[in-house]
Amino acid sequence: MKSKPHSVTELADCTCANLRKAARIVTQAYDFALQPSGLKSTQFILLANLVEQGDMPLTQLAEALVMDRTTLTRNLKPLLRQGLIRIEQEEDLRVRKVSLTGDGLRSVEDARPLWEEIQARIGERLGDDRWSGLIDDLGATVEAFQES
């Protein structure tokens, strides 16, 4: 018996494809909104995470952001060059700690109103119930796949 070829409808229902499309369009909106701050959305999220969580080892930061270490290291390099973070060796030389600098904190504080504005705009476009549901569903999705 021949296997049935995948239809366009089945591919249109692909979770990965739809999440990636949504992520790209939302990232573009955040990047555009954050442009006056000089930060990209990925940089803002990373720096804001350090504001909320404090200094942390590279591995722990990668886990918090659900990123592999090599991707995180690549994302940290421009922030390090701009003097927004510092990375220091711990006593255990295998551990490197990421810290926010004073300039990094000011960058997050300066960008925060821009971030709040785009957050509000997305909430308005989706409506409170859909936006809240989306956040819940995305959190549940992350949890479901972290467990596997």
Automatic annotation (TrEMBL):
Pfam families: MarR. Keywords: DNA-binding, Transcription, Transcription regulation. Residues 12-147 form the HTH marR-type domain. Gene3D superfamilies: Winged helix-like DNA-binding domain superfamily/Winged helix DNA-binding domain (1.10.10.10). GO terms for molecular function: DNA binding; DNA-binding transcription factor activity. SUPFAM superfamilies: Winged helix' DNA-binding domain. InterPro entries: HTH_MarR-typ (IPR000835), WH-like_DNA-bd_sf (IPR036388), WH_DNA-bd_sf (IPR036390). This is Winged helix-turn-helix transcriptional regulator.
